[in-house]
Amino acid sequence: MGKDTKGFFRRKWFLRIISLILALFLFMYVNGSKSGFLRQNTRNNNQSSALMSNKSVTLRMPLDVTIDNNKYIVSGYPQYVKVKVTGPSALVTTTSNTQNFKVYADLSDLTPGKHRVKLKTSGLNSELTSKIEPQYINVNIQPRKTITMKVTIRLSIRDLDNGYKLGRPHSDIQTVQVTGSRDEVNKVNRIIAFVAIPHDAKDNIARQVTLQAIDRNGQTLNVVISPTTTNVSIPISAGSQSSSSSDSSSSSSEESEETKSSSRTSSRNDSSDSSSETSQSSSSISNEDSSSSSRNQ
């Protein structure tokens, strides 16, 4: 029995079958490994391609102006500009999220007047390219000027509808600093605190008001006022019409009381007179009866 088993394993057809099975397993294993390796390589290549492919994005960036702000005032330039950034996808995405660069106009070497200036970028990665819109801006450079002016309070109305009177308004700030370009500051005529008063106001008014710089025509000017607001208080008191009305009411009340008192006194007098007449009449009748009785006797 043992010899037959050993002979069975030594036969050629059995060995051939075992070799074929092992060869198939080995073939499948090698192919599977190659497919996985190829898939991994393909995935890595796709990711690398995605990272290295070019991408464009348009950003809205604030515009910085480089100038000596203690000497000059600049006007006419936009607050924001558009920047189209192009380059590797990963860098563009990072730049879009962080916005770690700036767009500026260098005016440090320019003199007062109107100029056309080219915009530039700084802090942008060297692998990225940018296109600014607009590429050029027009600016107006003027000498800086600061003056001190008094605050004027302007009320929307002077008289109230209910007979109450407005008192003299008071501001907790008497003077302010006005700063701007020399041409604009020279146009300032007044610094006003405008207060809207309700027509039916009866109580004292307190308001925090934003100050405005106006020219001779009442137009608001583009200057900086410091401080920008003031607290205004306006007393309100009862007018003469209201007082007259109160006096009339009081007088009418007094006259009414006097009339009632007179009526009560008159009633009491009439009552006593009537009682007196009644007693006199009774006395007369009594005397007449006495006389008649004495004659009969």
Topology overview:
Blueprint: H1 2-10, H2 12-52, E1 54-66, E2 72-75, E3 80-88, H3 89-98, E4 102-106, E5 113-118, E6 120-122, E7 129-133, E8 136-155, E9 164-166, E10 170-171, E11 175-181, H4 182-186, E12 190-195, E13 205-210, E14 212-214, E15 224-226, E16 229-234, E17 236-238, H5 240-296
Parallel strand pairs: 1-4, 8-12
Antiparallel strand pairs: 1-3, 2-8, 3-7, 4-6, 5-8, 8-11, 9-17, 10-16, 11-15, 12-14, 13-16
Summarize the structure.
By secondary structure, this protein is α+β, with helices and mostly antiparallel strands. It has helices at residues 2-10, 12-52, 89-98, 182-186, 240-296, and strands spanning 54-66, 72-75, 80-88, 102-106, 113-118, 120-122, 129-133, 136-155, 164-166, 170-171, 175-181, 190-195, 205-210, 212-214, 224-226, 229-234, 236-238.
Instruction: Tell me the series of helices and strands, N- to C-terminal.
Output: HHEEEHEEEEEEEEHEEEEEEH
Tell me which oligomeric state these chains represent.
Answer: single chain
Strand content: 35-45%
Which range best describes the helical content: under 10%, 10-25%, 25-40%, 40-55%, 55-70% or over 70%?
40-55%
The number of helical segments is: 5
Q: Report the mean per-residue pLDDT as an integer.
A: 77
Q: What is the distance, rounded to the nearest whole angstrom, between the alpha carbons of the first and last residues?
A: 196 Å
Profile the largest sheet: 7 strands, mixed
Determine the structural class based on helices, strands and strand pairing: alpha+beta
